[in-house]
Input
Amino acid sequence: MYFSSFILKNLTRRPWRSALTVLGLAVAVGTMISLLAVNHNVEFAVSDSFNRRDVDLVVTQAGVVFETDSDFSEDLVEQVRKLSGVAEHGVSEALVTVEPLYRENGTVLKESIMVQGWKPDNKAFSDIELLEGQLLTEESMGKVILGSQLASNIKKGVGDTIYLRVDSKYEVVGIYKSFVSFEDKAVTMSLKDAQKLTGKRITGFSVRVKKTAPSGTPQAEAEVQKVKEAIEALRDSNDPTVRLAARTPDSYVDSLTHLKIVRAMTWMVGIIAMVIGIISVLNTMVMSVLERTQEIGILRAVGWPPRRVIQMVLGEAILLGLVAAVVGTVGAIMATHLLAMSPKVDGFIEPGVPLKIMAQGIGITAVIGLLGGIYPAIRAACLLPTEAIRHD
Amino acid sequence: MTDTFADYLLFADRVFKTYPDGDVHAVNGVTLGVREGEYVAITGPSGCGKSTLLNLLGALDRPDQGEVFFRGESLSKLRDLDRFRARQIGFVFQSFFLLPTLTARENVQVPMFEGPPLSARDRAKKADALLDLVGMGKRAKHRSAQLSVGERQRVALARALANDPVLLLADEPTGNLDSENAAKVLDLLTALQKTHKLALIVVTHSLDVAERADRVVKMKDGQVVEDSGADLVPTPDAAATG
Ligand SMILES: Nc1ncnc2c1ncn2[C@@H]1O[C@H](COP(=O)(O)OP(=O)(O)OP(=O)(O)O)[C@@H](O)[C@H]1O
Ligand SMILES: [Mg+2]
Output
């Protein structure tokens, strides 16, 4: 017999208790893993959309709390186009907003969908895949194209009409597929239409910098930094209070207030889940050590040192943790898929748990097992063999 | 005087043990020498300190006063009493305390984790041999709950022998057994003591055990009041201690 199989048998001896502990712990861990995963997936989708389009800087209005509140003039964008460090055709501006979608009779079809207004020369048009119909042109007023996921979700195709804000109707002229998950769930229209719809001008733009060294090198970073400073120094003569904030894609993602809230929530719920997990393991292991007082006395009598008793109890706790980690991870994968299907969060949650998060989750659960096991293990190890054997 | 202790496998030199809560002098100045291969029975009325003395002799507990010597070496100087117990001493208790999750074969292997290093296979092999020795070879795969009480005690006996101890300590090993099973376990103990040249100290109420032993030690109120082998033990010099 191996010591490890001895540990395993101690857990299988009370299968119900072990299973319930695993279940409780798995719920805690699963919650944490799903939150971390959802958080990661959203952040990844945003930064990936910029990184794959070779975007060096993301520019929005400085000082706004939510990026959808950003609003500035096209004049500022033109000033950026003329900056010497900016690549040719390196600026793609957009007006991004979140709107409800209506039915013809004025009732709400979808509470919130992303609407993006692009100029026909927006670089992103070159990497979205047209599945049906056509893309937008300079004259495409009153026309929209739909991301494939949104299209199948609301069952609209080329030739159909969608209603944004009761009196604004648009003809669907194309269906596209985008590697950016939230674009695939969005309505895309011409910038002019979006401006008419919202009364805003530009909410943000991306910038590619003319670099003389490969991306990632200190020299390239310095060049990006220079352009960033130039952009942030620009002023709009008609509206001198407006400033621009230019950020690299990663720091842009970090700066997003929505995501910051999600991150803070993730950590808060994650820590609560961890504490619950630790208490659950603690409870189970304290019970199990108490029940086995006499046995532990015998183990000590036959010469097991306190160290081995600690190994036994901690081993059991960590094993509980690892099983719970596996169950919790599977649960988390299912939970994120279920959540992504829920109409309430449609379009904002990406399903799936990346490997990195799984590894983190399993590591954290092992730590939970360890923390929950330490006290009972020490208690067991401190039992005096003579007292333990007399115990009843 | 220490050099004479060396003649003994185990020598308790004026040991005292008082439990803090009851203020009972459970063991009150006992001097006792046990030679290699000797079979000693300890008897006496309930509560006279037999189990307490056995725990001191088996390094399960340390005396408040006095010392226990093993082959002339003081146990109080041993840093690792766990290791000492694991390698030199086998214990048998009144309740058998087999681990319920484990089979007989696995139970016998429990002390081996702390014994001389053996592979998992060798541990299993050795356990089987020990179970054969106690006549339980055919029940190796049974769990405690599937064994009769007599059989459980025999498995416990095999477990006590797991690391080839030189000293076997048994506290009322037949206390929970009917006379037939008690006789079986006693025969086994006696036989093992002879074949393995074990020193055997048995705490017992049973006259059967006392009959088989080389020597009977009677205790009362924490002291030895009669010792059929007393001539073998140097008499404690009361004047010197007082
Ligand atoms: N852990 C303890 N705490 C307090 N008192 C104890 C403890 N263990 C034993 N005693 C007391 O010490 C005395 C000797 O106990 P011990 O168990 O050694 O007696 P015993 O001779 O083995 O008795 P029995 O034949 O009933 O097993 C008793 O009075 C008992 O109540
Ligand atoms: Mg007793």
